[in-house]
From TrEMBL:
Domain of life assignment: Bacteria
Cofactor(s) needed for function: K(+); Mg(2+)
Name this protein carries in UniProt: Multifunctional fusion protein
Keywords carried by this UniProt record: ATP-binding, Isomerase, Lyase, Metal-binding, NAD, NADP, Nucleotide-binding, Potassium
Organism of origin: Limnobacter humi
Annotated spans, Disordered: 1-26
Binding site for (6S)-NADPHX: 107-111, 214, 321, 388, 456, 526
NCBIfam families: yjeF_cterm, yjeF_nterm
PROSITE patterns, alphabetized: YJEF_C_2, YJEF_C_3, YJEF_N
Length: 592
């Protein structure tokens, strides 16, 4: 709904998160005008952003309060939000018929009061609705409320007056901020439900725009889950730092466009990171910095330079999963790709003919070789293991034999492998301690080799002996724990895929910003596995290969040039093709 701000120059987009000129003013600048002089909103997914937990944001807030009065920060948040909202109102294709500002009991409600008064000062007819639930609110909130005196403001009370939205109305949501973790209760739940029902009634033509202050009310800013009623926003204006939950799970559906104004707190955040007092910090990478990770292909290189990938999996009835991985690896630029299919195990040796069958050949991609397991161990540098493998005793033995083979070659042996473990390879690892022990031995034996695991939440729950619910409640921690326990880079898939490293810097962790529900189709994960393997083959480190593959996999749902729409549904083969098209196009742009 909001016209995208013209892209900043590439140089600006690439600039690191720290900007010394944005340091919080010191005490002698503890005045309102200096903080309010100009809003500094940035849109998500252009620059690299730090993404903090609620506790980390609280830490930064408290540090900020030592430099500047908390009321001034509230004023800054409110005034800057009002500037952004005015910008939005001016770009609407109709005159805004009604502005409804909802102010909750906490400081988020204080922000809303500042916004309400500022919008009224700009000449908008504003209805200010208070939801204090009998609480007085903090001193800052009380001050902000007391300042709501502009004659354009109409004060309304829930329960006494009926809230009736007009078509095209604007709603500013200051009900619950970062403290609103549980299911909304009482009148707050009632007003959210009423607004949601009226929005549905008004339909697309009467679209009601919702702007969330700091976060959509009803969304848990840590987990990204909405346990009850949630007020989905078209635009979320978040303060100080982006919060993890805005980029994950329900957060992906209810935030709309996300814009951040750090209120000059960047330097404080970086100080704390440098001191190690903030703990692990998650990042969301911007487009340009993702592009800078892509491999550079040189003329003097050849197929041997781009990696030999072997895909090991595909039991009877599940051959397609392994084939998808192999095709994806090929499309994503691996130099050579081969398959070993469990379905053919014992039948593909020249000595043994399987009556009536021939060894598998992918007729669409005859470039993909087909080799027995041991041959592939010698052939490939990158082993992508698990798609379609199954968890039968034969699959267990196969994985066992594979680990033994790799362990035998050892640090002085003929071949060292980089690994991508997915799907049933992970289920087997979770189920059989013997296999986990061998895996960890392998990792210890060749720590310089890259290793990536790509579980979805259920596989992650099995690996961590946990539940899907517990995993989804803290996806960054779960990814970190997977990386630690399995001594590798862990990719925890889903809405807001998390990529975590186990090695130094120990805190390296990212949330991916691309993709969407169109990726939720059988074989989509197999395609991702092939992409990770291909990028490892092209020389990326495990973390970069994983993060980049996840990003490109997500881009596959976006429109390509000449297309005018993102994809709502897809299938795995199309995901692989489209991912490769995006990849190619980015390589052609030649950023490196
Ligand atoms: N500090 C700063 O520097 C800045 C802070 N800023 C702003 O402050 C916000 C944080 O403010 P906050 O801590 O007051 O919490 P907030 O989210 O407004 O709500 C707390 C109230 O809600 C209530 N409540 C909670 N859950 C509920 C539920 N499920 N259903 C119903 N009610 C529920 C809860 O009730 P209680 O649990 O106490 O009974 C309490 O009364 C932050 O997001 C940002 O917008 C900006 O001004 C920038 C500078
Ligand atoms: N709603 C969604 N939003 C974003 N990504 C999704 C969504 N649903 C699925 N995906 C992505 O699609 C892929 C599915 O992988 P997986 O569950 O392993 O599928 P399969 O086993 O069928 O290959 C993962 O990369 C996951 O992150
Ligand atoms: K809010």
């Amino acid at each position: 709904m909001h016209p995208a701000k013209p892209a900043d120059s590439l140089q600006q987009q690439a600039s690191p998160v720290t900007n010394p000129s944005q340091a919080l003013p010191q005490r002698n600048l503890n005045t309102l005008p200096s903080l309010l002089e100009a809003a500094a909103w940035q849109p998500a997914h252009q620059q690299d952003w730090l993404v903090l937990s609620v506790e980390q944001v609280r830490q930064v807030e408290h540090a900020a309060f030592r430099e500047v009065a908390s009321y001034i920060l509230m004023q800054a948040a409110g005034q800057r939000s009002a500037q952004k909202i005015m910008d939005l109102v001016q770009h609407l294709d109709h005159r805004c018929p009604q502005v409804v500002v909802l102010a909750g009991p906490g400081n988020n409600g204080g922000d809303a009061c500042v916004v309400a008064n500022a919008l009224a000062e700009q000449g908008l007819p504003v209805e200010l609705w208070q939801f204090k639930g009998g609480r007085e609110g903090s001193a800052d909130r009380q001050k902000a409320e007391a300042g709501c005196k502009h004659p354009n403001l109409r004060h309304s009370q829930w329960g006494k007056t009926t809230l009736q939205l007009k078509p095209g109305a604007l709603v500013v949501d200051g009900l619950l901020g970062i403290a609103g973790r549980d299911r909304p209760k009482g009148p707050i739940a009632e007003v959210i439900a009423a607004i949601n029902a009226q929005r549905e009634g008004l339909g697309r033509t009467g679209h009601v725009h919702v702007v969330a202050l700091d976060c959509p009310s009803g969304l848990d800013c840590d987990t990204g889950l909405a346990p009850g009623e949630v007020l989905a926003a078209d635009l979320t204006l978040t303060y100080i730092a982006a919060k993890t939950g805005l980029f994950m799970s329900d957060g992906k559906d209810v935030c709309g466009e996300i814009w951040l104004d750090t209120l000059h707190c960047d330097a404080l955040i970086h100080q704390r990171i440098a001191q190690g007092t903030l703990g692990a910090v998650v990042r969301v990478r911007g487009r340009l910095s993702q592009m800078q990770r892509l491999p550079r292909r040189q003329h003097a290189q050849h197929k041997g330079s781009f990696g030999s990938v072997a895909v090991l999996g595909g039991q009877h009835g599940m051959v397609g999963a392994a084939v998808l991985t192999a095709r994806s690896a090929l499309l994503m630029g691996a130099g050579r790709v081969a398959l070993s299919l469990l379905a053919e195990h014992g039948h593909s040796s020249p000595d043994v003919q399987w009556p009536g069958t021939r060894p598998f050949l992918d007729l669409n991609f005859p470039e993909i070789m087909n080799k027995p397991l041991q041959d592939n161990c010698n052939f490939a540098e990158i082993l992508a293991v698990g798609p379609g493998l199954g968890t039968s005793p034969e699959a267990q033995d196969w994985l066992d034999a594979l680990f033994d083979e790799a362990l035998e070659h050892g640090p002085l042996g003929v071949k060292k492998h980089h690994w991508v473990l997915d799907a049933d390879a992970l289920n087997l690892l979770a189920e059989h301690n013997r296999l986990k022990t061998k895996w960890l031995k392998l990792r210890k034996q060749s720590p310089e080799c890259h290793a990536v695991i790509t579980p979805h939440p259920l596989e992650a729950a099995r690996l961590l002996n946990s539940t899907v619910d517990a995993i989804q409640r803290n996806r960054p921690d779960a990814a970190r724990e997977l990386a630690r326990q399995f001594d590798c880079v862990a990719v925890l898939k889903g809405a807001g895929t998390v990529i975590a490293a186990n090695h130094s810097p120990a805190t390296r962790i990212e949330i991916n910003g691309t993709g969407g529900p169109a990726l939720g189709t059988a074989g989509s994960g197999d395609v991702l596995t092939g992409a990770v393997a291909a990028l490892l083959g092209q020389g990326l480190t495990s973390f970069d290969a994983a993060a980049c593959a996840v990003w490109l996999h997500g881009l596959s749902v976006n429109a390509l040039p000449g297309e005018n729409q993102a994809h709502r549904v897809s299938h795995a083969s199309a995901i692989a093709q489209r991912m490769a098209q995006h990849y190619n196009q980015l390589l052609q742009q030649g950023t490196r």
